[in-house]
Specification:
α4 packs across α5. The longest helix has 22 residues. β18 and β19 form a beta hairpin. The N and C termini lie far apart (94 Å). The chain is of the alpha/beta class. It is built from 13 helices and 19 strands. The chain is globular, with a radius of gyration of 25 Å. Among the domains are: 130 residues, Beta Barrel (Lyase, Ornithine Decarboxylase, Chain A, domain 1), CATH 2.40.37.10; 179 residues, Alpha-Beta Barrel (TIM Barrel), CATH 3.20.20.10. The strands form 3 sheets. Strands 3, 12, 13, 14, 15, 16, 17, 18 and 19 form a 9-stranded mixed β-sheet that branches. An 8-stranded parallel barrel has the order 4-5-6-7-8-9-10-11, surrounded by 5 helices. It has a two-stranded antiparallel sheet with strand order 1-2. The structure holds pyridoxal-5'-phosphate. Pyridoxal-5'-phosphate binds next to α11.
């Protein structure tokens, strides 16, 4: 035993038996995967939630969101920051919770900007990125004093310059690099991105950088590029950051404006299917630490910060969509369960043709036989199917069925008006308490907003 292992002055010495007890009861690290555990959603009984709030509904576990933010933040090296991509889940109740965690926000519209300002994000921690930003949206961003507007084209650069001049503000900006379209599920290729809807090809970006550097109304911080969606490979994410920093360094050298910020976008993935491995956060941290080490030995990059804008990773596993079985048809061997909501509330499985995991939440589900089951919604389109032939406990009318990993691109990406059903309610759970954060909108409410002209 070295002296460092010995008792610290004033601190009682533990017996080995005491140490053993301590080890035995040492709590496990709280889980950061899904919100369904032991048949409970965010620790609450699904049927109680359904009774209290009706169905269909979205349930979000805010404590789990917090743990996911902490887990990601814990592996990031010095000089890395996070901004939540609001497009993944813009519910005010969710945003307010995330704002409280101290990370920033990435918005893609004036509406999202208004939401994050209401939720309490500091303007300087907000970035605005996305094609087709209107003048009123750019003016709102400049007026609010947000930390960075990501410019997507030469035209947008000219409009933002004029707006900043009119408002007598100097707006910090990033320049968005186009990523080759065919790179979606391959290694991200930054250079040579064709002129498309997102960002600028490198020669155009260089030109934009020259213009921005010369403008008294714009403060050029660096570059932005979104790599690929739902990446589960930590090394590819790190490669994307490294390649983008190299582009940023080149642009900084050409303009003489130091590289202050590189925004590598989102794309941190989550498993949707059984057997998929979650993103290896430890490996991501190690790879990013290696990069930070290299940058720190380069005086041009020492002061540079890196922003990541995860959406799906932070909120996806923390949300579930819950519907009630209205009808069971098909055959004994292959039942078809029809829920009281479908792609009008959660279009993602149909949109990207990716089934989510489903769970039958009946108390006796474990004792039922498991059969290949189709689960569909009530809409008059063949697209309205959550799963074809998933092996599930035999469904019964009245059961609750949860579509898991629906906290990102769920409610917000849905098509709520098709067939005039009620919308889904949204519920947030924190510390074991459930709170309605967005009430259901009835067809009646929607009719009241319409005008039938009396010609
Ligand atoms: C600019 C930008 N940042 C961040 C995100 C968030 O991506 P994800 O939810 O995959 O992390 C997106 C998604 O489209 C995006 O376009």
């Amino acid at each position: 035993m070295t002296s460092e292992d010995g008792p610290v002055e004033g601190k009682p010495v533990e017996s080995s038996a005491e140490r053993e007890v301590e080890q035995a009861i040492e709590p496990e690290a709280p889980p950061i995967d899904g919100l369904l555990r032991n048949g409970l959603l965010a620790g609450l009984a699904p049927h109680t939630l359904a009774t209290d709030f009706g169905t269909p509904l979205y349930v979000y576990d805010l404590d789990l969101v917090g743990r996911r933010i902490d887990a990601l933040g814990a592996v990031l090296p010095f000089g890395f920051r996070l901004a939540f991509a609001v497009k993944a889940n813009p519910a005010l109740g969710v945003l307010t919770h995330i704002a409280g965690s101290g990370i920033g926000a990435d918005v893609a519209s004036g509406g999202e900007l208004e939401a994050v300002l209401r939720a309490g994000f500091a303007p300087v921690a907000i970035a605005m990125t996305g094609p087709g930003k209107r003048d009123d949206e750019l003016a709102a961003a400049v007026t609010a004093g947000i930390g960075a507007v990501t410019v997507e084209s030469l035209g947008e650069l000219a409009r933002l310059d004029a707006i900043a001049e009119r408002l007598r503000r100097r707006q910090p900006i990033l320049l968005r690099l186009a990523v080759a379209d065919d790179a979606k599920f391959e290694r991200v290729r930054l250079i040579g991105g064709a002129a498309g809807k997102f960002g600028m090809p490198l020669p155009v970006l260089r030109e934009a950088a020259g213009i921005a550097a010369a403008s008294p109304n714009l403060e050029l911080l660096g570059v932005h590029a979104f790599g690929a969606s739902n990446l589960l490979d930590a090394s590819r994410l790190a490669d994307h950051v490294a390649e983008l920093v190299a582009v940023g360094e080149e642009v900084a050298t050409a303009t003489g404006v130091p590289l202050r910020l590189v925004d590598a976008g989102g794309g941190l993935g989550i498993p949707y299917a059984d057997g998929e491995q979650p993103l290896d956060l430890a490996l991501l941290g190690t790879r990013l630490e290696e990069l930070r080490g290299r940058w720190d030995s380069n005086p041009a990059l020492r002061e540079m910060e890196v922003l990541l804008e995860p959406g799906r990773f932070l909120v996806g596993p923390a949300g579930a969509y819950v519907g009630r079985v209205v009808d069971v048809k098909g055959t004994d061997k292959a039942p078809v369960a029809i829920l009281d909501g479908g792609i009008n509330h959660l279009v993602r499985p149909a949109l990207v043709r990716q089934e989510h995991r489903l769970a039958v939440l009946a108390p006796d589900a474990d004792s039922r036989d498991r059969v290949p089951t189709t689960v569909a919604g009530p809409l008059c389109t063949g697209l309205d199917v959550f799963t074809l032939h998933a092996k599930l406990p035999r469904p019964q009318v009245g059961d609750l069925i949860a579509v898991l990993d629906a906290g990102a691109y769920g409610f917000t990406e849905s098509m709520p008006f098709f067939l005039s059903h009620p919308t889904a309610a949204e519920i947030a759970v924190r510390g074991g308490h459930a709170c309605l954060i967005r009430p259901r909108v009835s067809p009646h409410d929607l009719l009241d907003q319409q005008i039938a002209p009396r010609w």
